[in-house]
């Protein structure tokens, strides 16, 4: 409707509410899954990121949008459990990378495999619907459109 404030129209409010519900459910399940692995949600997120690639702690803090000192504490606890190790960065030996151990990689994989909330509802969507949803979410966060897959 012309002239109507799109931030308060009923459709926008419903979409915002639905997004909030999806995010809350995802966080609840993620925390439960982390707990089953005796991890906090933050520890699980760090381990998940590191299972993709070893990272310097400063970069981990940037990705998690938190203080480097918080990441140091999380890495300390994961290291004490044998899930993460610190190693020199081959590109700059003054920099320490946090990297998962073999057990850390197994734990991250098990954690990912136990997250059903996102997979089950998405499975009810066709591939084209999932691509459309992904592309819309990318636009919303400013990442750009689809890449054809």
SSE topology:
Elements (H helix, E strand, L loop, with lengths): L9 H27 L4 H12 L2 E2 H8 L3 H13 L3 E6 L2 E9 L1 H12 L5 H5 L3 H15 L8
Antiparallel strand pairs: 1-3, 2-3
Helix pairs in contact: 2-4, 2-5, 3-4
Task: Provide key terms for this protein.
three-stranded antiparallel beta sheet, 62% helix, 7 helices, transcription, WH_DNA-bd_sf, Arc Repressor Mutant, subunit A, DNA-binding, mainly alpha, 149 residues
Strand order of the largest sheet: 1-3-2
- Give the domain tally: 1
- The CATH class turns out to be Mainly Alpha
Overall helicity: 55-70%
CATH H level, superfamily name: Winged helix-like DNA-binding domain superfamily/Winged helix DNA-binding domain
Could you list the spans in which at least 5 consecutive residues all have pLDDT below 50?
none
How is this structure best summarized?
InterPro entries: HTH_MarR-typ (IPR000835), MarR/SlyA-like (IPR039422), Tscrpt_reg_MarR-type_CS (IPR023187), WH-like_DNA-bd_sf (IPR036388), WH_DNA-bd_sf (IPR036390). This is HTH-type transcriptional regulator MhqR. By secondary structure, this protein is mainly alpha-helical.
